[in-house]
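Researcher: Structure prediction, please.
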Amino acid sequence: MSSPHEVRPRSAGAVKAAILSLLLMVPLCTAAGGSDMLSDILKEAKQKFAPDRRTVVFDIQPEPKGKIVVLRGEIHSIALKKELFTFLAQHKEFVFEDSIQTLPQPIVGDNTRGVVSVSVVNIRSKPDHAAEMATQAILGTPLRILKKEHGWYYVQTPDDYLGWTDDRIAMMTAAEFESWVARPKVVVTTEITFLRASEEPAAEVVADVVAGGLLALTGETERSFAVAFPDGRTAVLPRSMGVAYAEWIAGAAPTPENIIATARRFFGVPYLWGGTSAKGLDCSGFIKTVYFLNGVLMPRDASQQVGVGDVVDTTGGVDLKPGDLLFFGFKATPERRERVTHVGISLGGKRFIHASTDVRVNSLSPADTDYSQHREQMFLRARRVIGAGPAAGVKFLKDIPDYGGGRE
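Model: Predicted structure follows.
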């Protein structure tokens, strides 16, 4: 009887079968390894060039044919595609062929720019009225038009956010947009109001407007500004409800006093997912609106805003300055990354104002009547935008070309 550890010689047929089996496995292993390598290369490229899908289009599908890989899909711009293929050229394992469509789509034509023509437009995650409202854009907001589909437009807002809208936008060529930007403007300073066709109290209502809305200035009297909407409609704006944009932007300053005074103007405004106006606000839309009205363009979401401004040391406890931003969410664990889900504005110390069920004040101190245990437990960190500059990710409207900045 054979020992349990005895190695028996194989027959010639068995040996040939084993060799054939190994030979057949080699190309399978090579193909699998190549597929993994290709996947890793494209993942690295996406992380490098488009780490945030909310702000950059990078939808690439590979079609491997041996060493040749045909890349299809769409990408944000010609410039980004050039960067991508420069990066891919470093990887000699494959030969990449370009079948990627750059945006804007050809169907968009020459009207690659747009300006919001109503008080607020809804921007959705998909070209469907039932889709999630991702954000909003207010009157006068400049847009980039990237795609067109069945009456919907895929647009990019000045904070780089992407989404679909079918609301009223004045479509423009690049030259027409430059002419619009160069026109003198008026900014709406009251929270919500209705504009009429003339100064007469019984004049017909033309449209509603919200704080931060921008209109072209066509004339003025002692009582009002004569204004034009991006789509050509005309109206009058009482002087008590607006100011010349050049004057406003020159004086816009995100000081602690200005930020808190602006934030308090929105007390009681209801919470609205995706909201960025006095009609309804979500937490990050509140931050965005308050800082915009003080000359700062903030990113759209709390998870993006947490990267703006200087870090505030809270290791010794939360004792903040007015205007600081408090961020809340889920701390990182070995199983998951940190997730920022909420943001508010410090009133100083432990009290803060934020958009929750509505715009309200809460505190992180148990001694205060407006204490929120939930927010205290969810607190992550704080950032200081006031006093910070471009090196800390702060963008000022006066420097942004689409808002008439940097053109001197």
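Model: The chain has eight helices and 27 strands.
Researcher: Thanks, that helps.
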